[in-house]
């Protein structure tokens, strides 16, 4: 169960006042389904993912869940730049309660997956954006969650690395679900069996993925 209860989120405006993305928003996600989260630009899709992944906090209200939810997959903004990739992985592992041999397994997984060689022990602030993304994606896949939050499916790297990433996605989804934001409808159809359309601070659920996509596209035509 993932339920949003009286959720409000706003941002300050230059001219004063605040823009509310959500205002006392109540919603329950369909349980045990992979969900395509669609809506026009500015509807709050990515904001909602960050709140679900505890990367951002609402102004008020709460997320009620008994599920293990990932941070947004591939998010690289949370790294400590002066630490090496290895030490960043250690830190996240400790946050999730992994120590000793279990922690070493997480480190080995990310190091092997990222394929950045000796740079794994260099400060992350020296990395290219592509290298940071490889570490971030590998770190996301190193942990098992009930739901993976995905803001666009694409992975960085050459075709071989992208194919490897796709295979990892598919393996994870054998035992987990996703909540996915994407502008590529082929990805929504490939990974999701429900669609939630967010618009104007409200959300509608569609069991038929094609119907949900059609509603989203119709909204886009009106903008």
Walk me through this protein's architecture.
With 223 residues, the chain is α/β, with parallel strands linked by helices. Helix 2 (85-95) packs across helix 3 (100-114) and helix 3 crosses helix 4. The relative contact order is 0.18. The protein is globular and about 50 Å long. Helices cover 37% and strands 26% of the residues. It has helices at 45-52, 85-95, 100-114, 129-141, 159-172, 185-191, 209-222, and strands at 2-12, 18-28, 35-38, 60-65, 69-72, 147-151, 177-181, 194-199, 202-206. A 6-stranded mixed beta sheet has the order 5-6-7-3-8-9, sandwiched between helices. A 3-stranded antiparallel beta sheet has the order 2-1-4, with helices on one face.
Q: List unreliable stretches of 5+ residues.
A: none
Tell me about the largest β-sheet.
6 strands, mixed
Number of helices: 7
Helix and strand succession?
EEEHEEHHHEHEHEEH
Q: What percentage of residues falls in helices of 4 or more residues?
A: 25-40%
The structural class is alpha/beta
Which geometry do the CA atoms define?
Answer: globular
- Compute the number of strand runs: 9
Average pLDDT across residues? 92
User: Termini separation (Å)?
Assistant: 33 Å
**What is the alpha-carbon Rg in Å?**
18 Å
Physical arrangement of strands within the biggest beta sheet: 5-6-7-3-8-9
- Strand content of the residues, in percent? 25-35%
